[in-house]
């Protein structure tokens, strides 16, 4: 795992945008990228929109989302499909038919989960998967206790996650769905390159658990330690509990150009 500690959230967004840009440019014949929603990747997505406006093309890109709320009607402004459309995919010109997410409005969510797992499998390889992390260490919506080998399925959000996400629902926790469809940790781990971005002190414990803690279902992000290609991009505040932050800064300062991301 490469831990990249940068001064500001803007710097983090730039590196995540660089990673996605490299994948998009490397495969002009077609590439699948995995997208997270939430606040953490927004600066990266804004950077990608700016690059698109400067000429970067996305018409060969297929996008797969990590997760979706169960029970929000299709088109609900806080459904993750809508959020990603608004924040990124429309603005960079990815055909909506090539933007895929679990169907949280399906009458049978269990069937929707199986269907999405099969769809993601059919769209592999996922060249880059953008990730955020919850304050409790969740990745996707794999809450603590999730199997490290899990596949796409229905999960129940913790009350902490619902409270954290109430900000997207006018502060109304009751409006945050209890259930979600999420790619499993095993599903996510099949992407070729995982790039996780976390900013702010509220993420510091989760980041330390993911990067340096034991590999444990208590911190689902710790499963990233088993993946061969992970870039963990954090600002100074989110790096605040990393024991090896100084080494990470040293590595970055002496990185060989050939090493890339
Ligand atoms: C969202 C997702 C979640 C978020 C996490 C952090 O698609 O999979 O794991 O990345 O909840 O959310 P923010 O970035 O809003 O703090």
Automatic annotation (TrEMBL):
<dbReference type="InterPro" id="IPR004547">
    <property type="entry name" value="Glucosamine6P_isomerase"/>
</dbReference>
<feature type="domain" description="Glucosamine/galactosamine-6-phosphate isomerase">
    <location>
        <begin position="15"/>
        <end position="225"/>
    </location>
</feature>
<dbReference type="GO" id="GO:0004342">
    <property type="term" value="F:glucosamine-6-phosphate deaminase activity"/>
</dbReference>
<dbReference type="GO" id="GO:0005975">
    <property type="term" value="P:carbohydrate metabolic process"/>
</dbReference>
<dbReference type="Pfam" id="PF01182">
    <property type="entry name" value="Glucosamine_iso"/>
</dbReference>
<dbReference type="GO" id="GO:0005737">
    <property type="term" value="C:cytoplasm"/>
</dbReference>
<dbReference type="GO" id="GO:0006043">
    <property type="term" value="P:glucosamine catabolic process"/>
</dbReference>
<dbReference type="InterPro" id="IPR006148">
    <property type="entry name" value="Glc/Gal-6P_isomerase"/>
</dbReference>
<dbReference type="GO" id="GO:0042802">
    <property type="term" value="F:identical protein binding"/>
</dbReference>
<dbReference type="GO" id="GO:0019262">
    <property type="term" value="P:N-acetylneuraminate catabolic process"/>
</dbReference>
<keyword id="KW-0378">Hydrolase</keyword>
<protein>
    <recommendedName>
        <fullName>Glucosamine-6-phosphate deaminase</fullName>
        <ecNumber>3.5.99.6</ecNumber>
    </recommendedName>
</protein>
<keyword id="KW-0119">Carbohydrate metabolism</keyword>
<dbReference type="GO" id="GO:0006046">
    <property type="term" value="P:N-acetylglucosamine catabolic process"/>
</dbReference>
<dbReference type="InterPro" id="IPR037171">
    <property type="entry name" value="NagB/RpiA_transferase-like"/>
</dbReference>
